[in-house]
Amino acid sequence: MRKNYLLTPGPTPLPPEVCEAQARPIIHHRTPQFQAILKEASEGMKYIFQTSHDVYILASSGTGAMEAAVVNLCSAGDTVVTVEAGKFGERWTEIAKAYGINCEVIKVEWGKAVDPKEIEKKLKANPKIKAVFTTLCETSTGVATDIEAVGKAVKDTDAVLVVDAISGLGAIDLKTDAWGCDIVVSGSQKGLMLPPGLGFISVSPKAWQKIESAKLPRYYFDLKAAKKALASTDTPFTPAITLIVALCEALKIMRQDGLEKIFARHKKMADATRAAMQALGMGLFAPTAASDVVTAVIVPAGIDGEKLVKTMRDTYGVTIAGGQAELKGKVFRFAHMGFIEEFDIIAGISCLEKVLKQMGYKFELGSGVKAAQEVFLK
Amino acid sequence: MRKNYLLTPGPTPLPPEVCEAQARPIIHHRTPQFQAILKEASEGMKYIFQTSHDVYILASSGTGAMEAAVVNLCSAGDTVVTVEAGKFGERWTEIAKAYGINCEVIKVEWGKAVDPKEIEKKLKANPKIKAVFTTLCETSTGVATDIEAVGKAVKDTDAVLVVDAISGLGAIDLKTDAWGCDIVVSGSQKGLMLPPGLGFISVSPKAWQKIESAKLPRYYFDLKAAKKALASTDTPFTPAITLIVALCEALKIMRQDGLEKIFARHKKMADATRAAMQALGMGLFAPTAASDVVTAVIVPAGIDGEKLVKTMRDTYGVTIAGGQAELKGKVFRFAHMGFIEEFDIIAGISCLEKVLKQMGYKFELGSGVKAAQEVFLK
Questions:
Q1: Share above pLDDT 90 across residues of chain A, in percent, rounded to a whole number
Q2: Residue A139, pLDDT score
Q3: In this model, does residue B2 exceed pLDDT 90?
Q4: Between the N and C ends of chain A, which has fewer C-beta atoms within 10 Å?
Q5: Residue B252: its pLDDT value, please?
Q6: In Å, what is the CA distance from B66 to each residue of A256, B69, B72, B201, B356?
């Protein structure tokens, strides 16, 4: 017997309804039967994105949706701002550079959030900046960006605001329209409680204006084709049918709970996790601007961070994430996102305590679990 | 009660093992557990592709894999040959043109296959041609290309041969290495008996040489990144986990049967379908070069082709495909590919007969079914 517990920042565990939906006999995508499903999914995504504009569903991972944002908005030689506060912010720069775009990079110390004033400064210094590429939740550090403030900094300029909300959408608040996010991209395997394989992208009228004149080559990720197809409840290419059927199930659950309740649940789980880590005497990597989707914890001195994560996973079946890139071995990332409830958090902390004890770290057994319980009891 | 029967050229019905595999609790992709699955899937795809070279698994539909072929091989201003014998051949031209590539188009009458001599002529006339883009099975017309002969025409030139085998791979023979196919692309929802959402691409050493110097911008579909990742049993971006888990199940079934037996089954189903249509007095749209994956049938005079397909689907739950683009209403396409057995063919023909009778078409009820039965009895 081997039971797996998943506490990683994507994929997150799947509700049984979502698992079951994928297993249904497949239907053809050019039928009224599938059109009804696609319509339900697209409408539901507007609710999740908090937008009145279309949300396009792509057969790709979230990175594909990021590429769609870049290649549809820009022309070679354009100048954009990219915010690098971790591995996923760096991805914006990588994609933009691959397409011959000049990047004015705002480097933010890992573990900190960007100061919206930095963005304002860049936009004032160069009115030709076409777009600002940011990250809602930087999964590599656990930090959440204040997108509302960033939106204010971008709103009255000619630039459009692009937000990578792959990690965070449907788990923490992101008011696409109200906060002035022109393009928001996301993926299926995070707050949406689905397997990976779907990318999402919303587009504001201001962004459509840029798209009209953008000259970068594109075909698979061409948003004009996606818009035209969706107008007749269709997709330009074969959609990932079973994942979209599953998306409808996830959306049913999310709409029943409501975004407010979902965000509150994530906040409580994050608070409990942070309290537990501190009770265990461990430091948080991002004590300020911590996101409610994943908590990065500094590996205590004398403990092998990679071995900790591996032992939890391979010996006990509890998967959390290690540090990425420059944080490898230095932090571990304990996620509390998606189809996760308080007792999953307790289970995860309990396993963490067990392995830390076995590795010789000094603390009172049960103190992390108790600290989390106290938060949940409130 | 409503029972659905799927006889379309993608998606095809799914084996129960494939359905079930998707519904399993999801695992994280950066774990030894998933690496074992990815390895099994990649190795299995070499068997299906009949290649000794790597096959990369992309999170995209087949069109994404087509785009990967174009953007990795070419630079803007390159000249290539595209073979247009239907809607999917035209897609090669569309993608190439979107990326600023000059296309020497070989237009083939719909319903016919390309004459490999035409390709030879083009290559002789212009030794700078970088690649020849063809289609194994043109789903829109039901025609199969003689890829072996095309391979001979391309082999000793500087050009590489690219084959869209989205429709056909794992259903009809395609010897990637032996026939000199440098890049073969495919998708999951056809012969592989999976839902859509995975793209596949194999690359020969000759193609890698071109890729080294190709300058088109790319990121999500960058094959160098895919190669580097696969060398450590990884993917550059989050893979479509549940679909890859399901792929392993489909591969188990396919390896147990063996390609030879699978191809023989498809041939028998195609023969039976063609015999049935002719017994019903209907003409085949592609009497020569017909593929064994889908049969395009000319709608009899006086019968509304679109209504025929809709009635079969919406009244009786039997989904076949109508004609695409210029063939809309003029043909219907009856697929016999993937998880389909002789009795599914009989069921489909029986429904076709019922609706044809109701629409006033004159023929002897049961004559199509009987003709198919005779083929199957042999």
A1: 99
A2: 95
A3: no
A4: N
A5: 98
A6: 40, 5, 10, 8, 38
Best mutation site among A26, A37, A78, A103 for testing chain B: the one with the most B CBs within 10 Å?
Answer: A26
Is the pLDDT at B36 greater than 90? The verdict is: yes
Collapsed DSSP state (helix, strand, coil) of residue B72: helix
The answer to whether B159 touches B130, Cβ cutoff 8 Å, is yes
CA distances, A93 to each of A106, A220, A302 (Å): 10, 21, 35
ipTM of predicted complex: 0.97
A-chain residue closest to B197, CA distance = A240
Q: What is the pLDDT of residues B117-129, one digit of tens each?
A: 999 999 999 999 9
Mean pLDDT for the stretch of residues A236-258: 98
Measured between beta carbons, which residues in chain B are less than 8 angstroms from residue A240? 61, 195-197, 240, 243
pLDDT at A2: 87
- Say yes or no for a CB contact (<8 Å) between A238 and B19: no
Q: How far apart are CA A257 and CA A251, in angstroms?
A: 10
Can you point out the beta strands (E) in chain B?
5-6, 55-59, 79-84, 102-107, 131-135, 137-138, 143-144, 160-164, 183-187, 198-203, 294-298, 318-319, 321-322, 331-335
Which residues from B are below 8 Å from A11, CB to CB? Answer: 26-29, 238, 241
CA distance B162 to chain A (A): 18
Measured CA to CA, the distance from residue A181 to residue B208 in angstroms comes to 40
| A60, A101, A334: best to mutate for the B interface, most B CBs within 10 A | A60
Output the DSSP codes for B186-197: EESSSTT---S-
Chain-chain contact of A31 with B313 (C-beta, under 8 angstroms): yes
Residue A232 burial (CB count, 10 A) = 7
How far apart are alpha carbons B26 and A196 in whole angstroms? 10
A217 to chain B: which residues are within 8 Å by CB? 76, 98-100, 216-217
Locate the chain A residue with the closest alpha carbon to B91: A219
From chain A, pick out residues whose CB is under 8 angstroms from the CB of B27.
4, 6, 11, 319
Q: Which residue's entry shows tokens 């971006």? A: B237
**Residues of B with CB below 8 A from A23's CB?**
19-20, 22-23
- Map out the domains of chain B with their CATH numbers: 5-10+258-377 (3.90.1150.10), 16-256 (3.40.640.10)
Identify whether B11 is preceded by a cis peptide bond (ω within 30 of 0).
yes
What lies within 8 Å, CB to CB, of B301 at 6+ separation is none
Average pLDDT, chain A: 97
CB contacts of B189 in chain A (<8 Å) are 26, 238, 241
Token pair recorded at residue B53: 């070279």
The pTM of this model reads: 0.97
Q: Is the peptide bond before A11 cis (omega within 30 degrees of 0)?
A: yes
User: For residue B78, what are the contacts with CB-CB under 8 A and spacing of at least 6?
Assistant: B101, B102, B130, B131
B260 contact partners, CB below 8 Å, separation of at least 6 = none
A173-A179-A184 Cα angle (round to 5): 70
List chain B residues with CB under 8 Å of A30. Answer: 321
In B258-366, which ranges are continuous DSSP H helix? 259-279, 305-314, 342-358
Q: Flag whether pLDDT at B179 surpasses 90.
A: yes
For residue A42, give how far its alpha carbon lies from the nearest alpha carbon of chain B (Å): 18
Contact state of A189 with B25 under an 8 Å Cβ cutoff? no
Residue of chain B whose Cα is closest to the Cα of A10: B28
